[in-house]
Description:
The complex is a heterotrimer.
Chain A: H1 29-32, H2 34-64, E1 70-75, E2 78-84, H3 85-112, E3 118-121, H4 129-146, H5 153-171, H6 182-187, E4 200-202, E5 219-224, H7 232-242, E6 244-248, E7 268-272, E8 284-285, E9 291-293, E10 300-302, E11 308-311, E12 320-321, E13 323-325, E14 331-333
Antiparallel strand pairs in A: 1-2, 4-5, 5-6, 6-7, 7-12, 8-9, 9-10, 10-11, 13-14
Helix pairs in contact in A: 2-3
Chain B: H1 2-6, H2 13-57, H3 59-62, H4 79-88, H5 110-123, H6 132-135, H7 142-155, H8 157-160, E1 167-168, E2 174-175, H9 183-192, H10 207-222, H11 236-259
Antiparallel strand pairs in B: 1-2
Helix pairs in contact in B: 2-5, 4-5, 4-9, 7-10, 9-10
Chain C: H1 15-18, H2 28-38, H3 40-47, E1 51-52, H4 60-79, E2 88-90, E3 102-104, H5 105-115, H6 120-147, H7 156-178, H8 183-197, H9 203-211, H10 220-250, E4 264-269, H11 270-295, H12 301-304, H13 320-331, E5 337-339, E6 342-344, H14 346-374, H15 390-410, H16 412-419, H17 423-462, E7 464-465, E8 470-471, E9 477-478, E10 481-482, H18 486-493, H19 520-530, H20 539-550, H21 553-567
Antiparallel strand pairs in C: 1-4, 2-3, 5-6, 7-10, 8-9
Amino acid sequence: xxxxxxxxxxxxxxxxxxxxxxxxxxxxxxxxxxxxxxxxxxxxxxxxxxxxxxxxxxxxxxxxxxxxxxxxxxxxxxxxxxxxxxxxxxxxxxxxxxxxxxxxxxxxxxxxxxxxxxxxxxxxxxxxxxxxxxxxxxxxxxxxxxxxxxxxxxxxxxxxxxxxxxxxxxxxxxxxxxxxxxxxxxxxxxxxxxxxxxxxxxxxxxxxxxxxxxxxxxxxxxxxxxxxxxxxxxxxxxxxxxxxxxxxxxxxxxxxxxxxxxxxxxxxxxxxxxxxxxxxxxxxxxxxxxxxxxxxxxxxxxxxxxxxxxxxxxxxxxxxxxxxxxxxxxxxxxxxxxxxxxxxxxxxxxxxxxxxxxx
Amino acid sequence: xxxxxxxxxxxxxxxxxxxxxxxxxxxxxxxxxxxxxxxxxxxxxxxxxxxxxxxxxxxxxxxxxxxxxxxxxxxxxxxxxxxxxxxxxxxxxxxxxxxxxxxxxxxxxxxxxxxxxxxxxxxxxxxxxxxxxxxxxxxxxxxxxxxxxxxxxxxxxxxxxxxxxxxxxxxxxxxxxxxxxxxxxxxxxxxxxxxxxxxxxxxxxxxxxxxxxxxxxxxxxxxxxxxxxxxxxxxxxxxxxxxxxxxxxxxxxxxxxxxxxxxxxx
Amino acid sequence: xxxxxxxxxxxxxxxxxxxxxxxxxxxxxxxxxxxxxxxxxxxxxxxxxxxxxxxxxxxxxxxxxxxxxxxxxxxxxxxxxxxxxxxxxxxxxxxxxxxxxxxxxxxxxxxxxxxxxxxxxxxxxxxxxxxxxxxxxxxxxxxxxxxxxxxxxxxxxxxxxxxxxxxxxxxxxxxxxxxxxxxxxxxxxxxxxxxxxxxxxxxxxxxxxxxxxxxxxxxxxxxxxxxxxxxxxxxxxxxxxxxxxxxxxxxxxxxxxxxxxxxxxxxxxxxxxxxxxxxxxxxxxxxxxxxxxxxxxxxxxxxxxxxxxxxxxxxxxxxxxxxxxxxxxxxxxxxxxxxxxxxxxxxxxxxxxxxxxxxxxxxxxxxxxxxxxxxxxxxxxxxxxxxxxxxxxxxxxxxxxxxxxxxxxxxxxxxxxxxxxxxxxxxxxxxxxxxxxxxxxxxxxxxxxxxxxxxxxxxxxxxxxxxxxxxxxxxxxxxxxxxxxxxxxxxxxxxxxxxxxxxxxxxxxxxxxxxxxxxxxxxxxxxxxxxxxxxxxxxxxxxxxxxxxxxxxxxxxxxxxxxxxxxxxxxxxx
Lengths: 359, 266, 574
């Protein structure tokens, strides 16, 4: 191939020392010493020969080792590893088998195959002047043949047609989810199943809660009793919004603003468990500081002060659920949350949400 | 009745009655009192012993009568369970005031701890040290242990981590690891809410629920790491660390070997 | 037809007599078949002996490629059992600690693969390890390309393809991580939900479209499954092919050295050496993944339990490649602004969506920015030693430090518990450090690079130190230096000394205003970018230094001393 299309014309530009040229090829030890060469050869063949053995060992493990057998590697009292024996031995045998193939191939290339370096010339990606000229010529001939020069509208029409043809394809995706219009938002992310008289029940055990069950410093992870009516994904969707943390604090030691003085039952307060940052459920509550920490991003809320943010990336207070005692003595909700739970979203102005110092 | 009323005025009646009465009292006393006395004295003795220990080890922070000082909270009404937990895990007596008092080797015998517990319990009623059947996971079915897992994830894992390895709390505090914690201490911690930990009272989480949770914690810790070396059970953090150190690091070493020119003849 | 009794001289039927004497290649018929149909010969003529240079850092991209192949293989196996469904069932498999617990089909089938399919756990763990390896190797490979300037002309397009691969691989990873529907990945999905929701204007719409309504809905696992096993792998496969095709077309870059020029490539031919090495390395990477899968536990979803939107665990982290975003979100202050009845959640959007966009934009623009700064239009096939591009190297290290600090922030709770530090203190410190750290790293790295340049210069001019102290008859002490090998001298001086751009005139020779090619701002930036290099020794300087050396080693020390004195009055060259 001709060398007139090299990437750079002046490869020696700025060299203070001339390029000494390729180093002289020196034979390897394994080339010069026959015994060493034979040892290398034996090593490569040996590695490959071990592979079938390992493969057979794999088969034996697969069929002979029961799935529930445990491996217990220990030294005296110290257990190094207790693992599923089948997994361990399957991994070890097949892993070593594959690894040995690789090592053998590489060793073959390193010490047995000829190791004289080759030199290949590069070629600029750029086309030659001639090629470019021919291209321009052919392009022009083609353009002329197409008639676009005289009937220009075809080009514009084609572009427009193609552009509009994309529209149906895009519109097809419009049903990926319901549209969060104002009314849709009101019936989805802006409400939960909490309502007047809904009992607060313990998560998992579904037991309703009486105020006297709670001691000062107590935390209860709670759900609305009517959540039980939901199943499958509807259950998950509602649970993702309605989860509560109920805490009891000494009323003397906390700040309760006037607007919320009827929201608690003698120091028992209920807050949304869903972080206002990105929506993780929070229940790391410190009984002495009254701080609630989110394990995901460490937003910290003060439950002794209407759930305001005291640290971290969250911007909004944790919504508080107004609660009361029902006639039969259980904790029930007074209403739904007064603001949507979970992360902020674009369409709602959250500047009116409760902030530290509000009354 | 006639028999009695006829002889009521007999001259020997009064002395006889006295003797009978004395006998009855004596007998009655012999039935009830001796046991009562020994139990009471034992109790008083234990409380006194506890009080003595308390004065030496606890009162500097919690006050001479457990009323609390600026250094330590009041112990009136915290109950014996609280003392059994705090001293049984070596948290109390604390070496120095800290953000959070860590668990340390236990320096008191169980009798001494019981004595202090008895004394503190005498200051005001609180949760008692549980009987074994209240916390022991003996006899739970597989489903019940699994339910314990659900309860654990609902109530405990947020702070103590999914395998109970512990987790961070604000400002240098932490939820401790549960790996070494004894069953009874888990029960006591839930009921008494030590330090920053909230209380889980017996009316909300019944002893039955706590037993399930303890059963799950025990079972999970006894369970093998099925997949192999657990690399600290720190989840994706240690996995990412490993892939760079062992994965990329190891393969770069192999890469260096591939590209390196081997031994030359001269 | 009558059998011929004799064979005429003109008859060509003589082959059978010749054939046994030459050794026939047993593959020949197959090769001929292939050649006749697709022209194998023409293709192979160039392909077989194509030369690839040898260097360990050129294998980083291969690790990524091979892990991708491992992912395809193991992924197919996993799809045989995995059910991408969020339908609720009661778990009734082998794993006792979840017996009777309501779980999704996706979670149950993951447990089924882990506990009831023989070798299933192994393949699942290989798949996850290979996924981490894939992204990690791609990342390290990108760093290699960056620090050696391998993205320069003519390889800018391939750099962009690489950026696309990087982005796609993280998406593939995140989607795959979410599929088992366990508590940890579900928490990750909830984070993704919040992230999408925070996008100004379209956030809520995007959220509803992605999840098919409210979080979590019933579709997201199935949709992510499609993304994970069809959409993204398809795109990855296409881009990987393009990436490789361009590497073959441009031929691989090489490090400078004796005999290496911009116009050649020195190394080993594909057939057989490179094929054996690269093929062997595939098996090594595979072996590593299998051993990790067999011996080291990864993502034990059975411990995490099924996803439940009311449950969470301390120490919730994403896989490492999402960790830096997680970190940024953690240390961001809670900023939210309100405009005309709307809420702009900067606290989530900026660190989450914004930072990711910023990183990929910067990476994508970098080759063009650098070209604008240097005005360099040459083709480059020889790699740069990082010290010879100090500002770029400093940028790269600053970026890595920033990334690392974000990553640490992503595990701030683990750091707090493992090292007994305060969570809040770490967070506050990192808020400052993510800005300060890169600046310090930049300055330090640039100093180090310039120092290394100076060292190279010294080494070329004065040779290497012998460590022998000699006392001259006059009582002076000196250390003789040994001249270095010609090859090393060449290596240390072969780079082109880059000159900053000069301001070009903004008027033509007739005084008419023309559009200025190099504005004063561009020239200033160019000076900042290139202007601090230590001048490399010129041929004349080297000749003079060699001359000194020939006079005798004992003079070397004096010469150096003199040289040092000579240099003293000069202002620092940076």
